């Protein structure tokens, strides 16, 4: 799969990707995202800031997307992070279209984010995952991310778990 920085022409496809993911999560009882988040404006903001990346299917349309930047939620300040020296990369809004899930696309997107971080000189990568998304939590743990604490965001009943992983060396997880 080709993973690259999103172009302006990708924005409608990314919007549909997120809409499909929202419908799928709601059908499975996961209230992580809704009609107001993530929205078209967030996607446009990520694109304009150069932080939106897409994984393309054979036809060139977005099959997956993620945002990587240095923006940490204010709630992250309460987390006892392990890595505090150096630049920190933060992953937001990892999504894979429901029609192509379970094919390794999320793993490829995560590998891309980690390699991007290493190449750009980041010391670690952080993310948060909704505790009600029972597929996401073990996915990140299997990739070697360490749970460092939890935060609460407005409009969500359940907490988000905060994860972190060093980018200073290549981690090989023997369970993969």
Walk me through the structure.
The chain is α+β, with helices and mostly antiparallel strands and 176 residues long. It has a single domain (2-166), classed as Gcn5-related N-acetyltransferase (GNAT) (Aminopeptidase, 3-Layer(aba) Sandwich), CATH 3.40.630. 27% of the residues lie in helices and 28% in strands. It has helices spanning 11-27, 40-48, 105-119, 136-142; strands at 2-5, 52-56, 62-69, 87-96, 122-130, 146-151, 160-166. β6 (146-151) and β7 (160-166) form a beta hairpin. The model has no long low-confidence stretch (mean pLDDT 93).
In short:
This protein is of the alpha+beta class.
Number of domain units: 1
* CATH architectural type: 3-Layer(aba) Sandwich
Which stretches of 5+ consecutive residues score pLDDT under 50?
Answer: none
Rounded average pLDDT: 93
* SSE sequence, one letter per element: EHHEEEHEHEE
Q: Write out the strand line-up for the largest beta sheet, numbering strands in chain order.
A: 1-2-3-4-5-7-6
Number of strands: 7
Based on CA atoms alone, the radius of gyration comes out at 15 Å
Helical content class? 25-40%
Q: Could you name the CATH topology?
A: Aminopeptidase
Assigned CATH superfamily: Gcn5-related N-acetyltransferase (GNAT)
Structural class: alpha+beta
Characterize the overall form.
globular
What percent of residues are in strands? Answer: 25-35%
Question: CATH first level: which class?
Answer: Alpha Beta
What does the main sheet amount to?
Answer: 7 strands, mixed
Distance between the termini: 20 Å
Number of helices: 4
- Assembly level: single chain
